[in-house]
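Q: Hi! First time asking for a complex rather than a single chain. Here are the components, and I think there are two in total. Is that enough to go on?
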Amino acid sequence: KNEVEQSPQNLTAQEGEFITINCSYSVGISALHWLQQHPGGGIVSLFMLSSGKKKHGRLIATINIQEKHSSLHITASHPRDSAVYICAVNAGGSARQLTFGSGTQLTVLP
Amino acid sequence: EPEVTQTPSHQVTQMGQEVILRCVPISNHLYFYWYRQILGQKVEFLVSFYNNEISEKSEIFDDQFSVERPDGSNFTLKIRSTKLEDSAMYFCASGGLGGSTYTDTQYFGPGTRLTVL
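A: Yes, that's all I need. Here is the structure of the assembled complex.
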């Protein structure tokens, strides 16, 4: 069974700061997902990665398959980025189910 | 933009009662999922559904739970006899188009908060 660990659990930043959230997993995967959970509970998919790097606006996600590690970066953070960021993985093979990390609560102060 | 919808947004029930949570996935998606999140805990996979049958399920998804796609648009999760520990946020998700790989993006609904008293 895959274990997905995220760090830090909580992160407080000042507006404009560069933010990094880390995710590591224990067993080989077919893809890794970064998700954002808003205070009301809704979950939005940000990225799905199986290799390399993806960028969308101020968000960048990277993955190192050999090291079983991924990072989510937010450049020029803004208070509206405040949310829980969750890493989730697809197991290898044909499994579509996601295994989730505990999430990182990000608070960006103005 | 198409989105996954769920009803009701909040359901309160007495222990031992049956509940049905409803979801309308995105119309051209082929794979449907239920996840749950107990307050303060990780999101957990319950079940996935494809081609009118369960394709994967977790150990949580025991005989108390069932899923159905009754009419080609709705996707339902039934809990037959609710327990206190079933109190959680239940998320429906959909993804996967024809010919897709195993690693499609999953699109989540807003969730149904189930409270069992």
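A: The mean pLDDT of chain A is 93. Let me know if you'd like any chain examined more closely.
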